[in-house]
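All the exercises in this workshop are built on plain-text protein records. A record pairs a protein's sequence with a compact description of its fold. The structure tokens are whole numbers drawn from a learned vocabulary of backbone shapes. Once this layout is familiar, the rest of the handout is easier to follow. An example says more than a description, so a record of this kind follows.
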Amino acid sequence: MMGIKKTALLAAVLLAACTACPVQTALPASAYEAGTGDADGNGSIDRNDAVCLRDYLLKGSGSPDRNGADYDGNGRLDAADLSLLKMRILNPPAEPPHSSTDPAAYMEQVRSSYVTQVPQNILSAQGGELSHITYFSKKANKQKGAHVWLPPGYDASKKYPVFYVNHGIQGNEYSMLGDFKILESAAGLIQAGEAEPMIIVFTFMYTNPNKDNCDGINAQEVPYYDAFLDDLTDSLMPYIESNYPCKTGRENTAIGGFSMGGRESLYIGIMRPDLFGYIAASSPAPGVVPARDNFMEHVGSIREDQFRMSEPNLPYLLMIAGGTADGMVGDFPEQYHNLFTRNNTDHIWISVPGGGHDGSVGIPLFYNFIRALFKA
């Protein structure tokens, strides 16, 4: 009985506060890392969510969205979730601003709002529609595959920005669909109103006219990944823009990837800053510039002094993340960070203590990246 009375009192206080109190100064983003608070599942967070959760707790009525309502992520709906929801409604989290004209200012806003723990409800979010497509690659002189994801609430009469996602070496268009929670992050953030609705394209980078798949990690195969620059810009992007309602221009186009896909995202972003305004690299592999690792001597695609971006095509957002326990690419992600710093290219560098060559680095990076896309 005491538990019911305490819950009732908390609910009454919450509803009174939501009715009478103005929105206060935003709390740090870390205060909201456990869940979104979208209890009624309508894509927004407001007083109606408090009513929905209160009625469920006190009356047993309604069916709240458990992913959204379980704010503390402990698998139960209780008074603690209601209390956290009060904090969220009265003190909405700070988000990167829209309409920034200064890339440096926008980059700093994203840097200051970066969260290291992805909300648990985001990791299980669902929504949108995924389909497999084929297109003719001029560079490979044959058909290649890709996956295209359309966001929740997709409307063919509207236009959407596009995010291209690149896989690791010996991967394909299926490789980035699972472990990095990209679709879950996009679906959950869009449904919560915290990300712009976007189209996501999962690419197959390997562009070899003579065979379909990479045989191994060696110097002979690397050029067929660099060749994806031409395949992407001459074939895949025109196909996507011809078959889907896309916004175009660098302000509406992002690229990111993992390992070799992170390396190629940096390379493509540097080579075509006129096309890509948002760039992310999770645990990027060596080889954009000359380097040597356990696998090969990398001749490099560009010189170290060319590893930069500058006016008039400064990136709105450039993010690199690496783990301190990455046994595959070691400290090469940090070397890219240091090289950008040396060449006066503003960017966000995230070092993940104990992070490996896996989702421990990529999941939070892509979550934060998606959350900030297309808002500059």
Summary: The two ends are 52 Å apart (CA to CA). The longest helix spans residues 2-20. The chain is about 35% helix and 15% strand. Residues 326 and 356 are 4 Å apart (CA to CA).
